[in-house]
């Protein structure tokens, strides 16, 4: 997002316009009146990435217009970032200036912050690290009370852990999440809380089990586990699965079975096409599943996964791309009715909208 798009005084009208445009994408689909979930108009982004632009002995945070890489836009303030990131940016730059070890060959800085208060900064370099660099980085981390990771080609050095801890309030309960550096996390924690609460409200209280595909680090899985007897959740990323297991232990949750598989492979397993070692010890027949939750990538659901989820009586679909969502809904509309629809402003001042849909079997 270019800073010229940041218009907090116009936020409500911009968000309203975006919801109207998003609703129009559904065309002739029979949809209910959507619930509208606005974001804070500033300070909402918990992740930020900046190029580093060197000028003589100094450097500045920079961004580039899409499609360009030679003329940077100098970033002196970034009001969409969390208050903690905004406060840290000038302090970090001032503390690093004058240190050749920390500044030389530095080309990017990434920030990862949480509502829980953790802050992780990743410094990316075109050079190899030395013991002197690590000493300076440890001093900087202590001075600013942050965690620092140094990355260079085939090198990764941490002053502390390579993750932060998030705490989200869902249905009057606090859930703690490990968020690993470099792994996907929802960038707008305020909207994420809204999405989690919405999903739990739609799920209700159940006496059967839940299937979740694309579970990530357990973002939806943890609070929804309170709403079902058992949860079977799949995710292809090993890093995300490890975080999900950590999160279950941290939150004292023991009714979730995580399986590291793609949705395509899981479909093959359910269809008996072939056996998978990763399902060893998992008795699929022991699950009484009527509800499935999917949170796919921007490409949406493939035909096999659409066929899989159509077997269940209720689908909760979280989408980061309304266009692929609409295509998937058209494929399901003969068998399913859209009961609930919600728009979440995950990325204010952009065209992106996060969408939640609940479908029930006709």
Automatic annotation (TrEMBL):
- State the EC number(s): 2.1.1.35
Q: Which GO terms describe its biological process?
A: tRNA methylation
Which parts of the sequence bind S-adenosyl-L-methionine? Answer: 186, 214, 219, 235, 295
Positions of the catalytic residues: 320 (nucleophile), 320, 354 (proton acceptor)
GO molecular function per UniProt: rRNA binding; tRNA (uracil(54)-C5)-methyltransferase activity, S-adenosyl methionine-dependent; tRNA binding
InterPro entries linked: MeTrfase_TrmA_AS, MeTrfase_TrmA_CS, SAM-dependent_MTases_sf, TrmA_MeTrfase, U5_MeTrfase_fam
Family matches, as Gene3D superfamilies: 2.40.50.1070, Vaccinia Virus protein VP39
Q: What's the catalysed reaction?
A: uridine(54) in tRNA + S-adenosyl-L-methionine = 5-methyluridine(54) in tRNA + S-adenosyl-L-homocysteine + H(+); uridine(341) in tmRNA + S-adenosyl-L-methionine = 5-methyluridine(341) in tmRNA + S-adenosyl-L-homocysteine + H(+)
Q: Gene Ontology cellular component?
A: cytosol
UniProt key word Metal-binding: no
Alphabetical keyword list:
Methyltransferase, S-adenosyl-L-methionine, Transferase, tRNA processing
Source domain of life: Bacteria
**Main function:** Dual-specificity methyltransferase that catalyzes the formation of 5-methyluridine at position 54 (m5U54) in all tRNAs, and that of position 341 (m5U341) in tmRNA (transfer-mRNA).
Q: Which family, according to the similarity comment?
A: Belongs to the class I-like SAM-binding methyltransferase superfamily. RNA M5U methyltransferase family. TrmA subfamily.
Could you identify this protein by its name?
A: tRNA/tmRNA (uracil-C(5))-methyltransferase
Which species? Answer: Leucothrix pacifica
Write the lineage as a comma-separated list. Bacteria, Pseudomonadati, Pseudomonadota, Gammaproteobacteria, Thiotrichales
């Amino acid at each position: 997002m270019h800073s010229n798009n940041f218009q907090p005084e116009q936020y409500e009208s911009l968000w309203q316009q975006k919801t109207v445009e998003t609703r129009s994408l559904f065309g002739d689909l029979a949809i209910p009146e959507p619930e509208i979930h606005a974001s804070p108009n500033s300070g909402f982004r918990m992740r930020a990435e900046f190029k580093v632009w060197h000028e003589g002995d100094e450097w500045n945070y920079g961004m580039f217009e899409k499609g360009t890489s030679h003329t940077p836009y100098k970033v002196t303030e970034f009001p969409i970032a969390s208050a903690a990131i905004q406060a840290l940016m000038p302090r970090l730059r001032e503390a690093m200036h004058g240190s050749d070890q920390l500044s030389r060959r530095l080309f990017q800085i990434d920030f990862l912050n949480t509502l829980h208060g953790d802050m992780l900064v990743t410094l990316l370099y075109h050079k190899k690290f030395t013991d002197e660099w690590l000493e300076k980085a440890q001093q900087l981390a202590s001075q600013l009370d942050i965690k620092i990771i140094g990355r260079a080609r085939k090198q990764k050095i941490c002053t502390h852990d390579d993750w932060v801890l998030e705490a989200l309030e869902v249905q009057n309960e606090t859930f703690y999440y490990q968020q690993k550096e470099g792994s996907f996390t929802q960038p707008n924690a305020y909207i994420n809380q809204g999405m989690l609460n919405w999903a739990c409200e739609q799920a209700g209280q159940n006496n059967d089990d839940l299937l979740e595909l694309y579970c990530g680090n357990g973002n939806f899985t943890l609070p929804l586990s309170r709403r079902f007897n058992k949860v079977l959740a799949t995710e292809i990323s090993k890093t995300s699965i490890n975080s999900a297991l950590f999160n279950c232990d941290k939150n004292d949750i023991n009714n979730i079975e995580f399986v590291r598989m793609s949705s395509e492979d899981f479909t093959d397993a359910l269809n008996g096409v072939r056996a998978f070692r990763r399902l060893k010890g998992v008795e699929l027949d022991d699950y009484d599943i009527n509800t499935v939750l999917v949170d796919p990538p921007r490409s949406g659901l493939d035909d096999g996964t659409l066929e899989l989820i159509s077997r269940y009586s209720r689908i909760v679909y979280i989408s980061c791309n309304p266009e692929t969502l609409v295509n998937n809904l058209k494929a399901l509309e003969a068998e399913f009715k859209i009961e609930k629809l919600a728009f979440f402003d995950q990325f204010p001042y952009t065209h992106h909208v996060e969408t939640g849909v609940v479908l029930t079997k006709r």
